[in-house]
Design brief:
The protein has 197 residues and is mostly helical. Helices cover 56% and strands 2% of the residues. It has helices at 2-32, 62-78, 86-93, 97-105, 132-145, 149-156, 168-173, 180-196, and strands spanning 83-84, 123-124.
Length: 197
């Protein structure tokens, strides 16, 4: 009788594990899935409303139109499948939500958040494949300056002449490239801004 109960328990456990694996696989597939609809037909995840076109911004106010274009660009980038929610980032990295969140708060990871929001962080997946100390060294001057996640993200993905035309993110991922080259670029950025004031 004990053998039957043990066997039944093992079968039930294996079915439960299979369901958990199926759910995890489904989340992974959604992470890497490309949307099938054109961008204009997508709904903004953050706002729950259709995303407007940049051309629909106030035509009479160039500053407002520029802000709207920036907001739309941020929303498009935020919604990219390689930018992971906290739960998906934890699954992807094989770590807990809490550990991922602590690394963001400690300046060892960065996450995108839509302007005007305090929730809904999205973690660019590339940073889970690089040496965490190299990434933290580059993030430190940004954190000290109180830079927004969008300033960090833009810098990391913009090719730099002094990095042989490569992006800082690519440079960070290259374990033999001297990380001081990227740190100096960030330091110079904030040193130059302070000197201009």
């Amino acid at each position: 009788m004990a053998l039957v109960n043990d066997a039944s328990r093992e079968v039930a456990l294996s079915v439960e594990v299979q369901h958990e694996l199926d759910a995890a696989l489904g989340r992974i597939v959604r992470i890497f899935a490309k949307p099938n609809r054109p961008f204009r037909e997508r709904r903004s995840v953050a706002a729950g409303e259709p995303v407007a076109h940049a051309g629909e911004a106030a035509h009479t106010d160039p500053l407002q139109a520029a802000r709207e274009r920036g907001r739309l660009a941020a929303a498009r980038e935020w919604e990219q499948p390689e930018n992971l929610s906290l739960k998906d980032a934890a699954l992807y990295a094989g770590r807990s939500d809490r550990a991922i969140n602590q690394d963001r708060q400690g300046g060892r990871l960065y996450a995108l958040v839509l302007p005007g929001r305090e929730r809904g962080f999205r973690y660019p997946s590339w940073q889970f494949h690089v040496d965490s100390e190299r990434l933290a060294a580059v993030l430190a001057p940004f954190v000290a300056a109180g830079a927004s996640s969008w300033v960090i993200h833009n810098f990391l993905h913009r090719p730099q002449e002094s990095l042989e035309g490569r992006t800082p993110a690519d440079w960070i991922a290259d374990a033999v490239a001297p990380i001081d080259a990227v740190v100096r670029l960030v330091d110079a950025r904030y040193r130059d801004e302070q000197g201009a004031a």
